[in-house]
Amino acid sequence: MNIDDVIRNRRSIRKYKEKPLTKEQIVEILDAGNRAPSAKNRVQWRFHVFQGEAKAKLIQVCRAGIEKLPEIPLMASTANSYNIMEQAPVVILVLQTCEWGGISAEIQSVSAAIQNMLLKAYSMGLGTVWINDVLFVENAILASLDFEKEESEFKEMLLDFGQKAGFEIGYSGPLIAAIALGYPDENPKRDPRKSVEEVTIWHE
Length: 204
Fold this sequence. Notes:
The protein is of the alpha+beta class.
C-alpha cells in the first residue's frame, strides 16, 4: 500500500471488532508517531496506552467527569465518544510537554505525531478515530494519571509578548487528544470534501 492510497482511503472508524492487538503492533504505531517532525526538534509528545482494566477505569473517569459539568451543545458527542473508546481494544492518550507554555508550535508537533499514527494504523489494516471529547475532562484525566502539571517558565513571557505585539499566542494544557485503535468493524464512506481549488489561494 503506497502513501497516496493511505492518505486517500483512511477513514475515521467508530466501530471495532473485539480482536485484540499485539504489543508489537502498538509499538509500531507509536514509533510512527515518534518519527514526526517537532518544533525545535524538542519531541513534545508523550503517549499513554490504555488496555483492559486500565482502559475501563479511564472511561469511568471520563463519564464521571462529564456528569459534573454544565451542558453545552459542543458536549453532545461526548457519550458516543466514550462508547467508542470502550469498544476499541486500545486507547492512546496523547499529551504534550508544555515546555514553552503549550503554545501552538507544540500543538502542531503533537498533531503531526497523531496523524502519523493514524496513517500507519491504516496501512496495517487497523482503524482509528481522533477523539477530542476527552478535553472536556482533562483535569479529571490528569488527576487519575497522578500527572503533575508543570507550568513553563516561558508561559507568562510568551503571553505578555503576544499582548504587546498585538496578537494572541494560544495556550493549551497537556492533554491534546485520544486515539481509539483496533480492527475496524465498519467501512464508512468519505463525506464529500471541498476541492483543492476551493481551499487554495494562489499568490504569483
